[in-house]
Design goal:
Layout lengths: L4 H10 L1 H8 L2 E5 L3 E5 L11 E6 L5 E9 L5 E11 L4 H9 L6
Length: about 100
């Protein structure tokens, strides 16, 4: 069973409930060192509909913005991947990459 403490911390660093309300994020999946979630279709720029944030060994994050296609086969395209992201920068990077505000 996965320890969700890191996933919960990542969500809190993004803004918690305020973040979910502002972005429409859902379908959260957490693991020992990551948080992944969906964004509503057509909501974020460049068709981004999945975000994966992974804690790496340097105590910084890897931020990945994906476009997942459904059809006969499930396919994904990496729109942007950023390494060495500090926790304090998560909200700003999320907004810059997706075009979605995390707060009013």
């Amino acid at each position: 069973m996965a320890d969700l403490q890191i996933a919960q911390t990542i969500l809190a660093q993004l803004g918690g409930r305020r973040f979910i309300t502002m972005t429409g994020a859902g379908d959260f999946i957490g693991g020992d060192n990551f948080l992944m979630f969906s964004l509503p279709a057509g909501f974020a720029k460049e068709g981004i509909n999945k975000i994966r944030i992974t804690l790496d060994w340097t105590d910084t994050y890897i931020f990945e913005a994906l476009k997942v296609y459904r059809g006969p086969e499930l396919k994904s395209e990496s729109i942007e991947k950023l390494d060495y992201v500090y926790a304090d920068d998560l909200e700003e990077i999320f907004t810059r990459v997706t075009g979605l505000d995390t707060h009013l």
